[in-house]
Design goal:
31% of the residues lie in helices and 26% in strands. Helix 1 packs across helix 3 (47-57) and helix 11 crosses helix 12 (358-364). Helix 8 (180-202) links the parallel strand 8 and strand 9. It has 388 residues and is of the alpha/beta class.
């Protein structure tokens, strides 16, 4: 990265994204539509540029978590259909209509509110009905005790003025987990989903799009592709299932050695004095900290990858900086690049050490970290999300 202030940045490999798209498309079959999940700024990768790439590759749909994310895509020139997966207050229906957003509908009460607001605008809001098959979050309950009640409610929603029901979907809770109990639960969820579709068909209701395959199901249950599949984190080459399919990481988070200190043995390093040098040490100061998304819980546990190999992170990670041990890496000096996450330094491994999931680490890469986009080995754009 060429800059007058070379600090910390994220390189986004759009060729890797395109490669992953093609692998997933082939894996799931050409008959099923590809819905690219670009919520949370495309899991930290940059929603607009990722959406442009997916649109150019032939994806049929995109998904976001709120209306502001949808508006950002529209303002960025994205024309694909956009499914808003999360909760939208009904008083924002006019805005949803204006930017042609498809809204998830999770209850009859929500549907009635959207219908009323859409009629005020003399419009029809396109919606996908959300079924709760076992996630216990949003959706019409499809467990055996509430199935019939939800069936009747969905039939009423289907007939509401001001709404155009295009699709029905559900979300799996444990499709990314192994073990017989997880497999049985995912199978149960799919059976509930299929039973509702069959019951609706018996009433003469056949949605254009049925979808249930999230990242976990894409990798582990490709037979659940239905009319459309929704790869999220797996599209970005992240998570243990991405490796099983040979997918490539799209993001590399980098920083530089900003300064080097020579410290004597038994010198405390950083807040809390949680690390003391065991010998005379060369310590690199890196301009990245938890405000940039490098979680403090990785203090004294992670490493950065330098041109000469790994350098352990020592002492507590600070807001804007952290330290690494360069004692055994004499060729690493001020200005040397260091990979925080990437092909040499898997974000999956960092997530395991942090006791979390890789989604959280990529989403945490903060707005003050520029995203640099590459295609064909050449920089094609950069983005800094801080307010101008």
């Amino acid at each position: 990265m060429d800059s007058t202030l070379k600090r910390t940045w994220a390189e986004i490999d759009l060729d890797a994204l395109a490669y992953n798209y093609r692998v997933l498309r082939n894996w799931m079959g050409s008959a099923s539509r590809f819905l690219g999940v670009v919520k949370a700024d495309a899991y930290g990768h940059g929603a607009v540029e990722v959406a442009r790439t997916l649109e150019s590759l032939g994806a049929e749909y995109l998904a976001v978590s709120n209306l502001d994310e949808a508006l950002e895509l529209r303002q960025g020139g994205i024309r694909l259909p956009i499914l808003q997966l999360g909760i939208t207050p009904a008083d924002q229906t006019a805005q949803a209509l204006a930017c042609q957003v498809t809204q998830a509908v999770w209850s009859e009460a929500a549907a009635l509110s959207f219908s009323e607001e859409a009629r005020k605008e003399d419009g029809k809001l396109k919606v996908h009905i959300k079924l709760d098959t076992g996630m216990s979050r949003l959706g019409f309950p499809c467990d055996e005790g509430q199935f019939d009640r939800s069936l009747e409610a969905i039939c009423r929603v289907w007939a509401l003025p001001g709404l155009e029901v295009e699709g029905i979907f559900t979300h799996f809770a444990v499709s990314d987990e192994t073990g017989e109990a997880s497999k049985a639960y995912t199978t149960l969820q799919y059976r509930r989903f299929s039973n509702m579709l069959d019951a609706l068909k018996a009433r003469g209701i056949v949605p254009e799009i049925c979808h249930c395959a999230n990242s976990g199901a894409v990798a582990g249950y490709p037979q659940y592709a239905c009319d459309m599949f929704r790869p999220g984190i797996i599209s970005y080459g992240i998570g243990h299932q991405a490796a099983l399919l040979g997918l490539r990481p799209v993001m590399t988070l980098k920083t530089v050695i900003g300064a080097v200190r020579e410290l004597p043995a038994d010198t405390a390093v950083s807040y809390g004095c949680t690390y003391r040098t065991m010998r005379p040490s060369r310590v690199g100061i890196l301009p990245i900290g938890y405000a940039d998304g490098l979680h403090r819980v990785l203090s004294n546990r992670w490493q950065v990858w330098t041109p000469s190999g790994p350098a352990p992170v020592i002492g507590r990670i600070c807001m804007d900086m952290c330290m690494c041990d360069l004692t055994d890496l004499p060729d690493v000096s001020v200005g040397s690049e260091a990979e925080v996450y990437g092909p040499h330094n898997s974000v999956n491994a960092a997530a395991a050490l942090a006791g979390t999931i890789s989604y959280e680490l990529t989403c945490a890469v903060s707005k003050r970290v520029p995203r640099i986009y590459y295609r064909g080995g050449e920089e094609i754009g950069r983005e800094l999300l801080l307010r101008g």
